[in-house]
Specification:
4 domains; alpha+beta
Length: 653
């Protein structure tokens, strides 16, 4: 605010005071109004933030240049972004690191948590009615704000806490809530509203799937039991852990509410480089009177690239791992871990065979039975089991770059989207690739990561590459039910076929398999008899182009049609997405959260269309559960269904 405005206000205020003293009546009333206006102007000036060039208060500029638009105003209902004696926020980095700031600003890390504005909202602005359990929820836009009608989250939370049966009462507790914050901007976006207690935020029970361009119930966005009561998701003691910088839940035990605060929303500079206030002060002092040669490293800030491969990976592992806290101090003060520290000093990183996980069935479902993580987003947990890490120097930065990435999707460094990622260490294989892979040099089978990092993790309604680097093994699959890379590409082959090839090519011990594994595609066995994660994973691989190239595209459709009737909404969603990759089925109308009868009708329609499209002269391998006349071997499939793993699966994303 220009200085002349408050000076003028003070002058008006003085004149008004004199008028009050000298006059009465209407002039006195006008003078009193002048007093109030003057006081308001002075008050506004006193609380006006400093507009100076201090980098600690500079505005956030998406382009990395000066003159950036101001950040959106934080609604009172949101946790405030507060800097302190450690943290200064990414705005402080902009003055000296414009290029790095710009690359970070384009990343999905930066957009993980955002204040909701028309620019950050992924969902269309159109008003929409969203039925949940027969009770319609509503989403709409008013100006630059987005609103919902939903069951009062505070009331619903209290009912859940009491274990009350309240379904019949929900319609009586519909409230309007403004959406104030979002999580995600890549695959799907979740939305948060205030719970009416402090700045406690709860999730609106619908998410918007960006790729599918549709709304899904939040339960359908995760592998969760279909009969599990919907639970209220709280941001303040969960998402705040990794989706902000220096998040502090701040429970107010007297008010039974959260009064949270963060250094910054989203995953920003200080999450990876450590608190920056000391660094900013040091650099200012250096600019004024240098005391350290520029060739010497600045020890006031952390550069993960200069850390050991273990410590640099732990920087990523602070979020990309299964973990618990060594103490309850997180609730009060947030994480004590700082980039560069020993992660294990303040964080209990789960190990499948450890006592803690073995006592928690809810955590065990996030692992295959050999201990490998099967949950996406926990890449550090998986990588720690790799010999490339334990016996070598593999780190997250071996393949990924947070600033010099090729694309925002996986933030892979230059040339790390191909075999160079592995050949940078395994140089001896460069000239003998075909001899090693037994596949054509330019084929998917000669891409190192397809064999050594297959898609055996699941999150975000898709399969994700495992970051446990190891070799395909039919024995591992037989003993621990972890799918192997060979059968995830050759979907039409049996486990026996894989075992024989691995013995022939790599000298692996022969594997004796049972009659079912001899006769039936390993992929179909998992799609029919596996648990919910197996079924979702097989459905995804049926839509994976390399697998279609290796296995053909003329037999998977009826099995995807079967999965359209799966009990789990997440499995149904993935099956539909894969089905749309097949010729003639690109526009199949289907709603994974629609009525059960409608889903069954859509499944039958797909199956009938597949039957009608088949060549009567076609022949079918017995492994595919299709009889010589082109019909499904339904009796055999029903037999397998009796052995389906129906244990409730709640994958802890």
């Amino acid at each position: 605010m220009p200085l002349w405005i408050p000076l003028l206000a003070l002058a008006c205020l003085s004149a008004a005071l004199l008028a009050v003293i000298r006059d009465r009546g209407i002039r006195r009333l006008l003078a009193a109004i002048g007093i109030m206006l003057g006081l308001a102007t002075v008050a506004a000036w006193l609380v006006q933030p400093d507009d100076g060039p201090d980098p600690m208060t500079a505005t956030d500029d998406p382009s990395g240049s000066a003159g950036a638009p101001p950040e959106p105003t934080l609604p009172v209902a949101l946790p405030p972004q507060v800097t302190d004696d450690e943290f200064v926020s990414s705005r402080a980095c902009l003055e000296c690191h414009a290029e790095q700031h710009a690359s970070w600003h384009q990343s999905y890390h930066r957009r993980m948590t955002q204040i909701v504005t028309p620019e950050t909202m992924a969902a269309p602005s159109d008003e929409v009615i969203l039925p949940t359990g027969g009770l319609p929820y509503r989403f709409w836009r008013e100006g630059d704000e987005f609103w919902v009608e939903m069951v009062d989250p505070h009331w619903e939370f209290m009912m859940q806490q009491r274990g009350a049966v309240y379904e019949g009462e929900r319609a009586q507790h519909i409230v309007r809530r403004r959406i104030v914050m979002s999580t995600g901007s890549h695959h799907y976006q979740a939305y948060w509203v205030n719970n009416g207690r402090g700045n406690e935020l709860v999730r609106f029970p619908w998410i918007y799937h960006i790729g599918a361009e549709r709304w899904l119930t939040s339960d359908a966005a995760f592998v969760a039991p279909p009969d599990q009561p919907s639970q209220l998701a709280l941001w303040n003691d969960n998402c705040i852990q990794c989706h902000t910088v220096h998040g502090q839940p701040g429970p107010d035990y007297d008010q039974k509410a959260y009064v949270s605060q963060v250094a910054e929303l989203g995953i920003a500079c200080e999450a990876c480089h450590g608190p920056g206030r000391e660094h900013v002060a040091f650099q200012r002092d250096q600019a004024a009177a240098p005391t350290v040669a520029r060739s010497e490293p600045d020890t006031t800030i952390v550069n993960p690239a200069r850390l050991s491969h273990e410590r640099s990976s732990q920087v990523c592992g602070q979020c990309h791992s299964f973990f618990a806290f060594e103490s309850e101090e997180f609730l009060e003060d947030g994480f004590t871990y700082r980039a560069g520290d020993d992660l294990f000093a303040t964080r209990k990183v789960h190990e499948f065979f450890g006592e803690y996980v073995q006592s928690r069935p809810d955590l065990q479902v996030g692992h295959w039975q050999d201990g490998t993580s099967r949950l996406g987003g926990r890449e550090f947990t998986a990588m720690r089991d790799s010999k490339c890490y334990t016996d070598g120097q593999l780190s997250c930065l071996s393949c990924h770059s947070l600033h010099d990435y090729q694309q925002t999707n996986d933030q892979l460094a230059a040339q790390m989207d191909g075999n160079e990622a592995c050949l940078q260490c395994h140089e001896s294989l460069r000239e003998s690739l075909v001899e090693h892979t037994h596949h054509a040099a330019d084929s998917e089978g000669s891409k190192c990561y397809n064999c050594h990092m297959p898609h055996t993790s699941f999150a975000l309604l898709k399969s994700i590459r495992s970051h446990r680097v190891d070799s395909p093994s039919a024995t591992m699959t037989s003993e621990y039910d972890r799918p192997n890379a060979c059968n995830l590409c050759h979907l039409d082959r049996t486990l026996e076929w894989t075992a024989d090839k691995l013995t022939e090519w790599y000298g692996q011990p022969p594997l004796q398999v049972g009659p079912v594994a001899k006769e039936t595609s390993a992929t179909l066995l998992y799609a029919i008899t596996g648990d919910a994660v197996h079924r979702a994973m097989m459905a995804w691989h049926m839509g994976w182009q390399p697998a279609q190239e290796a296995s053909g595209t003329n037999w998977q459709v009826p099995f995807l049609a079967m999965l359209l009737k799966d009990p789990y909404a997440a499995v149904r969603f993935v099956a539909h997405q894969s089905l749309r990759t097949y010729p003639g089925f690109e526009d199949v109308a289907y709603d994974c959260i629609g009525a059960k009868s409608d889903r069954a009708a859509a499944s039958k329609q797909v199956l009938d269309a597949w039957y009608a499209s088949q060549d009567p002269a076609a022949t079918w391998p017995a492994e595919l559960l299709i009889s010589p006349d082109g019909k499904l071997r339904q009796q055999r499939i029903e037999e397998f269904l009796r052995y389906r793993d129906n244990r409730p699966i709640n994958l802890p994303e």
